[in-house]
């Protein structure tokens, strides 16, 4: 049975960028737009052309470059906005003009200070005006979810009569409940004349945490397009999250009889790119792409996952392009998870040694909440097993200055030979200096790919956590470090990730040579 195709309308670069602190340079918009195309979105709304010369230029360049995706020009229902949207998108192979005007009484009375009749007349005139330039016209009745039904029917009928081809009924302030929002689509499609000749779109905000649920209610009641943003960014609490609704549909596609054209493997890359460029960190507990979405600390969960992933996971992170990091070692972890993690480092402990490591591990986890791989391997070494980490950090010193390069020096030990050597490096910042220093001791070409820094408490004595990802060839390796000194935490995490690369490349590991 052919599944119904739900079209993904991405407004990350328009509504998403309106979130405080998320402003992008035009060239950054272009880069994200390219990634959105790679991920398979159907329509991109690259910006608000009338809002600034930079936004106009970005929409224009994206329209010219990305010919295989529909480009949407956003505008208020006024001529100057429509003219800017038309001009900015004129080189697009596929395009639509998207205009909006408020429809709820609270907006009309206090924001627009206009009557229903005035708004109805303006909507008619502006849709007719835009229709001269573009066949595909999307009309948004802003704040639809708080608009009286009879007036909403009248407004929708009027713009359809003037040539609107897509009707968007947004939950602009995130007020609606799913059953009410879905019913609104059903009612408008049933009672508004001409509704059977147009497509419908849903645009939901997340003020009550219901954006995804409301969007699902809308598409189950006839919406063809769902308007979303990557990571759910946008005004106030944000928009319907692209990755969340796509995976909700994907996970239930057989019962919903729906599907999207999104390339799932590109979800994580897109999420990471948007987070970095917009300086908007992703919450640890964010569904689908959050740090904890596929990580488990509970011993009961870890045991079940190691036996069968489906016991506690409904999605496979690898299919979303997310590196697998399933087990987090903390005070709730059990022996099974501990043995599994140690085994991943090529160490097989007997029962007595495992108990000794487990006891020390529990003491450490109680004190600092969770235990990094580097610390775990130290515990293994203390128990008499052969050291799993080839290189270890003995000493680190970093010198910073406001008017010159930062300098780092590190003493590193080869745990197989026992040899130690001291290296030095410089950089514009202390972390760059540390990386340039330690990299010299690693017997292969590793690239510092990513760094996440977190404070684990609020006081001046807070422990810092650094999570570092390195790449070596086509493989990536990730590790964490904890310390009250965030630079030392970064150094430990970087060296631990490099040790993973060394273990994965045994031929290279034979060539480790610590010569000062």
TrEMBL record:
BP GO terms, sorted: L-leucine biosynthetic process
InterPro entries registered for this protein in UniProt: 2-IPM_HCS-like (IPR050073), 2-isopropylmalate_synth_dimer (IPR013709), AIPM/Hcit_synth_CS (IPR002034), Aldolase_TIM (IPR013785), LeuA/HCS_post-cat (IPR054691), LeuA_allosteric_dom_sf (IPR036230), LeuA_bact_synth (IPR005671), PYR_CT (IPR000891)
Pathway the protein acts in: Amino-acid biosynthesis; L-leucine biosynthesis; L-leucine from 3-methyl-2-oxobutanoate: step 1/4
Domain of life of the source: Bacteria
Domain Pyruvate carboxyltransferase: 6-268
EC numbers, comma separated: 2.3.3.13
Key words, A-Z: Acyltransferase, Amino-acid biosynthesis, Branched-chain amino acid biosynthesis, Leucine biosynthesis, Manganese, Metal-binding, Transferase
Keyword check for ATP-binding: no
NCBIfam families membership: leuA_bact, PRK00915.1-3
Protein name listed in UniProt: 2-isopropylmalate synthase
Organism of provenance: Paenibacillus chitinolyticus
Lineage: Bacteria, Bacillati, Bacillota, Bacilli, Bacillales
